[in-house]
Amino acid sequence: MATNLQFIKSASGTSVTSLSVTDCFSADYDVYYISMTKLDKSTEEWTNIRVVNASGVASGSNYDNARLQLSSYTTFGEHRVTGQTSWTNIAFQSTGTADGVGFGMYIFNPSDSSSYTFMTHQASSFYSSQGMVGTKGIGVHKVAEAITGVNILSSNNFDNITINVFGVK
Amino acid sequence: MSEFGYIPEAPEQSFGNNKGIFTPKDIYDLTRADKYTNYGQLDHLITTNVSSNVSTVNFTGLETYGNYNVFLLTLNDITIEHDNKLIGMEFLSNGVASSTNYQVAGQSCMSNGSFNEIKGTSYPALRLTDNIGNATNECANSYVYIYNNLDSTKYSFITYHGLFQSNSNVQGSEFGSGVLPTTRFDNGLRLHPDQNGSSNFTGGNFSLYGIKEYS
User: Fold this and answer.
1) In B, which residues are within 8 Å of A137 by CB distance?
2) Phi-psi group of A162: left, alpha or beta (phi > 0 → left; psi -120 to 50 → alpha; rest → beta)
3) Sign of the torsion angle spanned by Cα atoms A65, A166, A9, A27
4) How confident is the model over B89-96, as a mean pLDDT?
5) B176 part of contact set with chain A, CB < 8 Å
6) In 10 A of CB A83, how many CB atoms?
7) Between chains, do B158 and A7 touch, taking CB under 8 Å as contact?
8) Which pLDDT belongs to residue B149?
9) pLDDT given at position A2
């Protein structure tokens, strides 16, 4: 939870399968907060997240994450993976434009080249034919390197997506 | 001189790119137009302190504080009159509450060993805690992120993580998500000391913050 926030950067896209926010992490902060409130899709699917380093999007098999799926309509589910090419199944998105999303993520130590990059996230979204899908989870990018940004991706297009990045003071 | 009065007229001002000499009025006007760099984007909007019995705590007219997509609500040392009640929250649209349309899903974690899934698609209100006690030192704390409630084209979502002392003085926590799956302009919040009935808040404070975005 933040004590104060300083807006750093936002990025938006339409009809894209991925969206990067680059050069948003620096030595100025140890912790960052990322929010998404606009995330519209025409295909029901999960959203994944990667980090960006000096060479671009980091797509090596260095991502571990675990999360609890909290659904209003069915038994809760666990998702835990290691050695993936992204943090997977972070937030679910359905096809309605009203479904939107409420998504928050904290990123820890991204600019520290001697430390892994860690994250926690919590989200709420709506599966049109079923009901609410919430998530709460953790993740790590297991490379000790400086991370400069994030990349949001899915298999099919985001019709509209906006990401905001804040430094936690 | 620019429309905002600052000198010189050029360049056009924007967040992260302010140049020139500004009067206090310039700063006020540019801030209101989202064109003045003013770090500290967790904007404190309202705090309500409870020191005697109240049945609800309401925050209304939220759009008058700014067009926030994300709000942060904190609950600090909240105490209630009756035992074994859980704190709930409704959205208000120009003062009008919704019906029992809330969908919730929360994971309750008690320090004495029991973990429980709470879920439903027709709750009378959103959950912010599990059941709390009313004895001395039995209280609740929570933080809640609220998304898209001012956007009449989107559903209003929350995520939350609360902690509390139960009616047997056992520490517990509940985290989860919630939604009002209706496209409304939800410009108010109503907090209840009992999601399913009636009671009173007897102490604590509620603070609402806006998280400022720039495009």
Assistant:
1) none
2) beta
3) negative
4) 96
5) yes
6) 10
7) no
8) 97
9) 46
Is residue B39 pLDDT above 70, yes or no? no
Cβ contact A13:A21 at 8 Å: no
Question: Does residue B36 surpass a pLDDT of 90?
Answer: no
pLDDT tens string B65-85: 988 999 999 999 999 999 999
Q: Which residues contact B24 (CB under 8 A, 6 or more apart)?
A: none
| pLDDT tens profile A28-77 | 999 999 999 888 888 899 999 999 999 999 999 999 999 999 999 999 99
> In terms of residue numbers, what domain contains A31?
5-168
Chain B neighbors of A133, CB-CB under 8 A: 177
**In total, how many domains does chain A have?**
1
**A102 in B contact zone (CB under 8 Å):** yes
**Residue A78 touches chain B, beta carbons under 8 Å:** no
Domains of chain B in start order, with CATH, are 1-39 (no CATH), 42-211 (2.60.120)
Q: State whether A72 and B69 contact (CB < 8 Å).
A: no
Which single residue is written with the structure tokens 């925050």? Answer: B59
Residue in chain B closest to A124 (alpha carbons) equals B177
The answer to whether the Cβ–Cβ distance between B107 and A68 falls below 8 Å is yes
Structure tokens at A98: 């009203």
B162 touches chain A (CB under 8 A): no
Its ipTM equals: 0.92
Q: CATH number, domain at A149? A: 2.60.120
Which residue in the set B120, B146, B177 is minimally distant from A134, CB to CB?
B177
